[in-house]
Amino acid sequence: MLSHYHADINPDDDNNSHVAMLRLIGFNKRVLEAGCASGHMSEMLHAQGCSVVGVEIDSTVVQPAVQWLERVIVGDFDDGKLWIDLEGEFFDAILFGDVLEHLKDPLVALRESAKHLGPAGMVVISVPNIAHADVKLALIKGTFPYGETGLLDRTHIFFFTKEGLLDLVKEAGLITTEICRVTVPVFGTEIGVSPNDVNDQVLEAILQDRESETYQFVIKAVRDDGTKSLEGLSAHLIELTDQLHDETRRYEALRTTHEGLAAEFQALAAAHDADQLDLAHLRHQTDLVKRFVPRPLLNFFRKRVNER
To answer: What's the pTM value of the predicted model, to 2 decimals?
Structure first.
């Protein structure tokens, strides 16, 4: 039985949280995968030469993942007992892919996971962005439409913005060293809002937010060694990432404008070509008239036209 969170992963899709997490983890690592479900990520990690220990709360969906796993632990991060099964074990990467938002206390889970990181270990996290424009537009309508999956999955307990996620990671004794975004345009999510739900001024204001079209955040974090150099490097990397994101948004806006103008130009060119054909047809008709209408009559019509 496949979990309803099971997803096919296209490794060529750069705008995908699974692909981003796989890139951040890399190859030939020992990985603890929280919420391995039926193994869609486990399989890809295995293909990257990783040895994976899976953790899954739902024992009914995990069987398909077993073939890719070193072993599986059926347990709940919120009761803390699964850490007993991992006592003395260390990992190169601990993966929380769309898991933290389902936990009652994600801070405790992150703190405990940090204790099981190897010397150069990392925690890789993916969470949905509650500040996506579509959620804001739904709230303006007075709705908060829970669903089976997505931004408003009905099993979500915590909701994250970028700042909230970074603060949580810092409080857990970790420091963010890389941040990626998965984007979905306004009106493009499962929330179901449409341009008819908002006026242009309100929409423009909402889209001023840098994260208005961020669907998920994917971050890499390492243990905070307490040095100012690492903290400064983290802040600088996040700032550069934000600047790159801003430039990408501007580029996409310019590209959309360019494509619109190009389409208008093509339409005008087609209309011009059609007008030229009509003009050629009229000239041909005029030539026929000149050929068959007696000259005195033509002179009479010309005179009347000039008099007007």
So the answer is: 0.80
